[in-house]
Specification:
The complex is a heterodimer of chains A (406) and B (279).
Chain A: E1 19-20, E2 23-27, H1 33-47, H2 50-64, E3 70-72, H3 74-80, E4 84-89, H4 99-112, E5 117-122, H5 126-138, E6 141-147, H6 148-153, H7 155-163, E7 167-171, H8 178-191, E8 196-198, H9 209-217, H10 219-232, E9 238-242, H11 247-253, E10 263-271, H12 282-285, E11 287-291, E12 293-298, H13 323-330, E13 335-340, H14 341-355, H15 361-373, E14 382-387, H16 395-401
Helix pairs in contact in A: 2-4, 4-5, 4-9, 5-7, 9-11, 10-11, 14-15
Chain B: H1 4-15, E1 19-25, H2 31-44, E2 48-52, H3 63-74, H4 79-90, E3 98-102, H5 104-110, H6 112-122, E4 126-129, H7 141-146, E5 150-151, E6 154-155, H8 164-169, E7 175-178, H9 191-202, E8 209-212, H10 218-225, E9 230-233, H11 235-243, H12 255-271
Parallel strand pairs in B: 1-2, 1-9, 2-3, 3-4, 4-5, 6-7, 7-8, 8-9
Classes of the chains: A alpha/beta (406), B alpha/beta (279).
Chain lengths: 406, 279
């Protein structure tokens, strides 16, 4: 096989029509094209407006609580006996995950565009909670679509959204998870396009969402760069994050993509195993296909029907991945790994008990691979893992999987 | 190049009436029944046939057509079977235009080049692919035109005058005006508003304009037909089919008839309209 063409920079994408190589694009119904073009224009304008950035920086500091710490996980480092392991503590953000970084930007944009109503899809509920939170703060009506399977397994987040005043619509169609929630949100947007802003939670969907969400999440990697330079006087040797749609991973990775010496690992959810039909690893087990407004790696059968994903983690239970990840996978800049439900549960327990940090099941997938990679690295190897969210929401389902008690 | 679609609209224009365009889902509730329905549609009064390609994630469809697609998929419908249905239909009918309607992924995974060859050979005349706006014309629209198929684009209430030329640029056969902002089978369109919109579109194109989304009754079809060259009815037909099924969702002796009698009723409505737009 020929070595894939390596660009001069990995950070120049997308092109003006939203393509990352063959991925991305705008595969949507005509009704949604005008609002997407309006969103693209509004985002470009906001991005160039110093007042917008200044206001966002203020909220990030005083409302979200940024910068989030870069924490040296000493006992985990000691346990694995290799790489020095740092956690980027996105779990400490207001609302408990990285999702809020993106939502803040989008809700400020919704306000700027004069949209009185915001809709969102959610899987684990963290994006829904973040959207409900910012809508409450800015006085905007919020409707969250959530698959009924996820409603059942993420009760704490359901109650949080309700407390925040959001309307929750349980989605009964298809696999009743994140994919179907996104279908319903798109149907709502097509219907209520005049007054509604669609706040997408990950680096996927039609252009400009993948690039816009990435930009808002890049604060994770930008802070990490400063913090590791301060702590260690040099850049990290490797980065690792879990990938469902891939916004936490892209936020950490993107600012480092052109530091070519840095190894970058994305961890997909292998569910019951890649050889089972129950997983959510779209790069490892999927192929380029078109869904939800973009071309990307998707779990699809030979007749072009989308397969149902499976993961213990509701946030990773999606049959696709962001288009920029698909491109970076093809050209080899990100190395894709996967962790099973069982491995993630093990990492969940280990992290909780070694570090006193209960991780969400999503980053527990990344931690599961840290457990395999770190021991093979030398003691001066600096490894940063994105601890993208906290695990309170998962306690009930973890207990159930572990036979009734934690 | 004239296609069956061009010929049919030209013939109807000389008759001075609008077309009834029917939508049914290929393979709903099973391939055999679906083919029987397909074959019965022209006689019942369908002038142009839209045949849905089922997809697991139909983002622009309401509950009725979502359910129809799932029934078809659960009964084992595939693209190969859908194209075979059209080949079978063409044995007896070489005049009624058939437009395949659906989403891009099943075509993309089938392979665009192979799909175009196979669809053309089967007797398909046009394509409506909901999630391919003009921004993605290179994917399928341009190759389809080159292969001699019509590519029918949707124009919507959000498509303003600035955008219409781009939407119409590579459109052929007819223009499908989506009468509401919404999913299929939802709110009923307001005929007066629809006529104003059709007039607006006709300032930009000589193509026939078909109006759909939310048309359910003969009365509505007639009102819409007074100001457009064609009326599309889908969800109501898929809903009538569903109501004829047994408790397990299987076809009954009433299934074909349930669809064709509604088509006949709608055709009467459309044919009763005093046409103004096509003149």
């Amino acid at each position: 096989m020929n070595a894939p063409h390596q660009p001069n920079s990995f950070r120049k994408g997308p092109d003006d029509r939203g393509h990352f190589g063959i991925y991305g694009g705008r595969y949507v119904a005509e009704t949604l094209m005008p609002p997407l073009l309006a969103l693209e224009a509004a985002y470009a304008e906001a991005k160039a407006d110093p007042e917008f950035q200044k206001e966002m920086d203020g909220h990030l500091k005083n409302y979200v609580g940024r910068p989030s710490p870069l924490y040296l996980a000493e006992r985990m480092t000691e346990r694995f006996g290799g790489a020095r392991i740092y956690f980027k503590r996105e779990d400490l953000n207001h609302t408990g995950a990285h999702k809020v970084n993106n939502v803040l930007g989008q809700i400020m944009l919704a306000r700027r565009m004069g949209k009185p109503r915001v809709i969102a899809e959610t899987g684990a509920g963290m994006h829904g909670v973040a959207t409900a939170t910012l809508c409450a703060k800015f006085g905007i009506k919020c409707v969250v679509y959530m698959g009924s399977v996820d409603v059942a397994r993420q009760q704490p987040n359901l109650m949080r959204m309700q407390a925040l005043g959001a309307e929750i619509v349980p989605v009964q169609s298809g696999s009743k998870t994140l994919k179907d929630a996104m279908n319903e949100a798109l149907r709502d947007w097509v219907t209520n396009v005049a007054d509604t802003f669609y706040c997408i939670g990950t680096v996927a969907g039609p252009h400009p969402y993948p690039v816009m969400v990435r930009d808002f999440q890049c604060i994770i990697g930008n802070e990490t760069r400063e913090q590791i330079l301060e702590a260690e006087g040099r850049l990290p040797d490797s980065l690792i994050a879990c990938i469902g749609g891939g916004s936490n991973a892209m936020g950490l990775f993107h600012p480092f993509l052109d530091d070519r010496q840095i190894e970058i690992y994305g961890v997909e959810a292998a569910g019951h195993g890649l050889n089972s039909s129950k997983h959510a690893a779209s790069v490892a087990g999927g192929r380029p296909a078109v869904l939800h407004g973009n071309r990307t790696y998707l779990l699809t059968n030979k007749d072009g029907q989308i397969k149902e994903a499976h993961s213990i983690s509701a946030g990773l239970d999606y049959p696709g991945i962001g288009p920029e990840h698909a491109w970076l996978a093809d050209i080899g800049r990100i190395k894709f790994l996967s962790a099973t439900d069982k491995e993630a549960l093990g990492a969940f327990q280990l992290c909780s008990q070694l570090e006193g940090i209960i991780p969400a099941l999503e980053p527990a997938h990344a931690l599961a691979k840290v457990a395999q990679l770190a021991p093979k690295k030398s003691r001066d190897h600096l490894m940063v893992v994105n601890l993208s969210g906290r695990g309170d929401k998962d306690l009930a389902s973890v207990a159930e999987h572990l036979g009734g008690h934690l | 190049m004239t296609t069956r679609i061009d010929q049919r609209f030209a013939a109807l224009k000389s008759e001075g009436r609008a077309a009834l365009v029917t939508f049914t889902m290929a393979g709903d509730p099973d391939t055999k029944t679906s083919l029987e329905i397909l074959k019965a549609l022209p006689k019942a009064g369908a002038d142009v046939i839209e045949l849905g390609m089922p997809f697991t994630d139909p983002m622009a469809d309401g509950p009725a057509i979502q359910a129809g697609g799932l029934r078809a998929l659960n009964a084992g419908q595939t693209m190969i079977k859908t194209l075979a249905m059209i080949r079978a239909f063409r044995k007896d009918d070489d005049a009624t235009p058939i437009v395949l309607m659906g989403y891009y992924n099943p075509i993309y995974i089938y392979g665009v080049a192979k799909f175009l060859v196979d669809a053309k050979a089967a007797g398909v005349d046009g394509l409506i692919v909901v999630d391919l706006p003009p921004e993605e014309d290179e994917e399928l629209c341009l190759p389809a035109l080159k292969a001699g198929l019509n590519f029918i684009r949707l124009a919507t209430p959000t498509t303003d005058d600035n955008r219409l030329p781009a939407v119409l640029a590579n459109t052929s056969g007819f223009v499908y005006y989506v009468s509401i902002t919404g999913i299929t089978g939802s709110a009923a369109p307001d005929a007066a508003k629809v006529h104003a919109a059709v007039t607006r579109i006709k300032r930009h194109t000589k193509l026939p304009v078909a109006v759909g989304f939310g048309v359910r009754t003969a009365k509505q079809a007639r009102a819409i037909a007074e100001g457009a060259e064609a009326v599309v009815v889908g969800s109501a037909l898929v809903g009538a089919l569903k109501d004829s099924l047994d408790k397990k969702g299987k076809a009954t002796g009433k299934t074909v008839k349930a669809v064709t009698s509604l088509v006949a009723e709608l055709a009467k409505g459309v044919r009763g309209a005093k046409q103004t737009a096509a003149k």
